[in-house]
Predict the structure.
Amino acid sequence: MFLDPSGGATSKVLILTVGVGQNVDRSLTFAIEQHNPDFILFLCTPQSRGNAERVVQSRSLPSSVYAIDEFSETGDVQGLALHYEAVIRQVLFQERGFQPEQVYVDYTRGTKAMSAAVDYVAVNLELGGVSYIEGE
């Protein structure tokens, strides 16, 4: 929990793009530790879903504090952006009642197309912030 400008406690959501490659689990875990979110939305491909599931398992996250979205159109930035916006609106805003300013994006471990798409959506929806925690 972090304090909102009015002094009350509010929840923080972290959206993580999940690609494939070495040390993806470590980078995702590092981002979670840095942001300390109350809820996590993993944006995955069919090939990268296992990385998100390993992080969930290693951190013993209860199903109430995360969601995993899987989308197979990994090279189509426009398709990804449309999909991500729909998922964020549905899963975070409609189902869980979060506000845009509570939502932060870390695109450290996504593909280039995933990163471009989620950055576009973050700006379009006026989310709380975008970060790139670490990379090579």
User: Anything to note?
Assistant: Confidence is low (pLDDT under 50) at residues 1-9. The radius of gyration is 14 Å. Helices lie at 24-35, 49-58, 77-94, 112-124. The chain is about 40% helix and 25% strand.
